[in-house]
From TrEMBL, chains A, B:
Ranges where the record places region Disordered: 1-24, 435-454
Known cofactor(s): pyridoxal 5'-phosphate
Organism of origin: Naumannella cuiyingiana
Tree of life domain: Bacteria
Record key words, sorted: Aminotransferase, DNA-binding, Pyridoxal phosphate, Transferase
Coiled-coil region list: none
Matching InterPro entries: Aminotransferase_I/II_large, Class-I_PLP-dep_aminotransf, PyrdxlP-dep_Trfase, PyrdxlP-dep_Trfase_major, PyrdxlP-dep_Trfase_small
The protein, known as: DNA-binding transcriptional MocR family regulator
One Gene Ontology molecular-function label: DNA binding
Domain Aminotransferase class I/classII large positions: 73-415
Length: 454, 454
């Protein structure tokens, strides 16, 4: 594998199954296995925008769609030497089957990482997963029967929505305000379920630099949300891939640091080191951890051992905290470029969030525009984004889009916002000339939560 | 991670969830989350022998229980240099997110590997998985609703039984004879289902050096089984981790080489290179492959990219075919030691299979003995095995045990058979003195298939 070519389609933590994957062969053939599939499989469908994103990955297109971290600054010679040394030292262990729960030394290091967010945890309560995506998969497997309700922010991470859908769960979205998930909306959602004799299996939330909204919960907000959860005996899954990438200062205390029995915490090395190792984890109360290990053994026997030794070696031999600081400077410059570009190039009536970290800005279009309908025209103008509808289980979000600043250079980001501004300008002209036919349905306008009113 | 210590419990392709995993904390606490779990979770239980196997992993015990390959002969300096070079060449790609289907270059190399067994395949029909265990997980997810029937050999791989159980499938065992899965028994099982208005979602079979029975299907037998499958429109999942480890000569043609639309093929690098990378794959008809990729994206976004680049680099830079020949010589010596030790030390009335490859011998105890009941006494005598009941979904197998020759040295293997012979001798004495109280139930004796009558 000596050429640095990328496959034409690459999984992406921002896009998940909605836009990633192979578009090489379009499925025009009949599926002769269709009567054999499980009920859950009939809900697995490739997104309509999948083929479009194959085009959007061309180099002439500025992609503000992806969620890939920029790992170009990782010192390859340091990593290469460390891996060679690791193999010579402990290769026979690193290349052997390992613990279904994950390697003990890595689990200890994970506890050190989590201590930066105020979490006091025991390595025995940590389960290593194939990225935190697999943590979502195993938790949904453990908790959710078909039809079970899961609460999630409106909008929420598309990869989580895919996984909840793969287990036939029913996602109920809960609104956000400037400070992220709204405790009043959460209370109302729980009360409404209660009135219908139902209960949510858990709340799924991303407290820091939420994907896709870019909003963060202040400390007091986290406490309020936990209060509501106690009131309704609600479990919380706290997904925290971006927490250490706080551009405004030190990391905030995790929700898990405030309640060890009610909060199940998901972490990942994908954004603080590199995603290719697929090393994530779950910190869960002991009884849940036991189920997670059984589920992990049925799913993979054990998470990738070589990856775990590699990450462990990186953490013990490299200044990983310094590397995170360097990532933060790089992302800060890109975030600033995105915000400057939007200020300069967006037409009146467009609004967007101003994230303190993470990878994403959530943009709301002027009334009458539809982000999914205009995507082909944007790609023609050599800029790509993810339409807001991808982040809702219920079809909302047509006036929204997610813009990511993690991967392109600042210059390309500014160029991308300029191209996007041109597309929006032409859409508005069309809309003014021809009126309402491109408008989203009324229900979407009136009910869509607006996390960007700040 | 500078010390070569192993965790006290290690996942194991032979034992799966039945015996692997952490026994550090015994679960004596109440599970306060129990009313929140999905229905499928209530079936996830740690095996009763799990704690015992923590003891069995002590160095003074000869473990004939594990299924870990012996990778001590891998040239660490070659692998270490190759990994360093790979990182310097393509590190930014190897450490980034990748394709949900798996890296294109590795999929091409996988097709080369499969050509050794007569398979002509296109890389686009290959999906990379987190070991072939995950292939089982994704296929069961795609095909099986709760209550669906899966056919499997009697006995069958415990890790597969775990996965089928995790999706609440119902396993129907099909008998074997000297040549592996019996076509007449398969026909009868299919006909019986048909009479009850049911149909199996698929047949799960391991044609080469079956785990745990150690039996192989001759070429003609494979054709006969495919004929029966055609007769009943049955899908076949061909699991082939050991096919290239044929100690008797060249690999046999895979079932997949005889029918590309009816056979879904699972492969793995765990036994031909090393398991720690967790690199397996599925070769499936196009429509199924599309579902697999969607399921993979929901499960992990993408299989471990770094592992894939590592395996790919190993295949392109090392004489992997020569390495397999060297593995074969090493395993042949161990297999021979096992068979010699059994011939010398087993009491009359004990029978066992004589594998041509793979890792396992299946042993049948003299009438009246129970392998699970005597396991604690065997471990006290410093020898461990897996009781036959682990390999049945229906409680049979109490007169059987699986003995593995893959991991201990020939000397240790012979010592292990000696210790096992002592235990059997004492069990027989007890049995003769005190009669029938240790006997397995009559139903198990009369119905248990006996793959070892050769």
């Amino acid at each position: 594998m000596s050429t640095p070519a990328r496959p034409e389609s690459v999984a992406d933590p921002g896009d998940g199954g909605a836009v990633a994957g192979s578009a090489r062969r379009q499925d025009t053939r009949l599926d002769s296995y269709v009567d054999r599939y499980a009920a859950r499989t009939h809900g697995m469908k490739a997104s309509a925008v999948r083929a479009l994103f194959a085009v959007a990955n061309r180099p002439e297109v500025v992609s503000l769609a992806g969620g890939m971290p920029n790992i170009a600054d990782l010192p390859l010679n340091v990593v290469g030497d460390a891996m060679r040394e690791m193999i010579l030292d402990v290769g026979p262990q690193a290349m052997q089957y390992g613990s279904g729960q994950g390697e003990p030394e890595l689990r200890e290091q994970i506890c050190e990482v989590m201590s930066l967010e105020g979490i006091a945890a025991h390595p025995d309560d940590v389960t290593v997963t194939v990225g935190s995506q697999q943590a979502l998969d195993l938790l949904t497997r453990i908790f959710c029967d078909p039809g079970d309700v899961v609460l999630a922010e409106a909008p929420s991470y598309v990869g989580a929505l895919n996984t909840f859908g793969a287990y036939q769960s029913r996602v109920v979205h809960v609104g956000m305000d400037d400070h992220g998930l709204d405790p009043a909306a959460l209370r109302e959602a729980c009360a409404s379920l209660q009135r219908h004799g139902a209960r949510a299996k858990f709340l799924y939330t991303i407290p820091n630099f939420q994907n896709p909204a870019g909003l963060s919960q202040p400390v007091q907000r986290r406490r309020e949300l936990i209060e509501v959860a106690r009131e309704f005996d609600l479990l919380i899954i706290e997904d925290n891939p971006y927490g250490l990438l706080n551009l405004a200062g030190d990391p905030l205390p995790a929700m898990r640091s405030m309640d060890a029995e009610r909060v199940i915490y998901l972490g990942s090395f994908s954004k603080t080191f590199a995603p290719g190792f697929r090393a994530g984890w779950v910190l869960a109360p002991h009884a849940v951890r036991e189920k997670l290990v059984l589920a992990q053994e049925a799913a993979t026997l054990c998470p990738p051992v070589f990856s775990q030794f590699a990450v462990s070696k990186y953490l013990s031999s490299h200044d990983w905290r310094g590397q995170i600081e360097s990532f933060k400077s790089m992302y800060a410059a890109r975030r600033d470029a995105m915000l400057a570009g939007l200020s300069e190039h967006m037409p009146a009536g467009t609004t967007w969030t101003r994230p303190d970290g993470g990878f994403f800005v959530w943009l709301t279009l002027p009334e009458g525009l539809d982000s999914q309908a205009m995507l082909p025209r944007a790609v023609s103008n050599r800029v790509a984004y993810v339409p807001g509808t991808a982040f809702y289980a219920d079809g909302l979000g047509s006036r929204n889009m997610r813009l990511s600043y993690c991967y392109p250079t600042p210059e390309r980001i500014i160029e991308g916002t300029k191209r996007l501004g041109e597309v929006l300008g032409r859409e508005l002209e069309l809309h003014e000339t021809f009126g309402l036919h491109d408008q989203p349905r009324a229900v979407e306008r009136s009910q869509a939560p607006r996390p960007d009113q700040r």
